[in-house]
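This part of the workshop introduces the protein records we will be handling. To make this concrete, we reproduce a full record directly below:
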Amino acid sequence: MGQGLVEAEDRCLGWGVRDFAENPSAARGRFSVRSLDVKEIRDIFAVRAALETLVEQTLCRLDDRSEAVAQLRSALKVMDNEVKQSLERGIEEDLDFHRVLCRLTGNESLLHAWEQLEGSIRMSIMWAGKELGIKNMDVSRHEEIVDAINSADVGLAAAVISAHMDTAAEVLVSSK
């Protein structure tokens, strides 16, 4: 499989790479093999930036953003604690922060579109390795997103999320 990564299409966590290698026919339809490279990671984060720009702009337009901002700040506290525990827990809390952003819009289609990217995002973080993955989980970078939403400045929110995603992609590909 070389540099390929195995992704469970049905999120079946009971299967590992060894199980797949030993019995590939039993895994048919359950797994796909993907090979990530620098271009694909940049592409994933470009799509993510476009999607999350819509998310942040939608949240900026809420008449009352206080509850959304409170939920996001709470998610950041959890993320800060989990990043200190392990890469895997940090990844899940980082993804959860962005999932909460999408959920707070009330737009189920937007949330679903983000969830479709989630596996690829997770894979790109793992591909880059622990040191670079953790670097992107910096809470202060995420606080900038919350502050931009709280400001209700749609242009600022778009600029902040664009910079956030550009930096995240560049960090992940920096060692390759």
Notes: Residues 38-60 form the longest helix (23 residues). Strands lie at 5-8, 31-34. Confidence is low (pLDDT under 50) at residues 1-15.
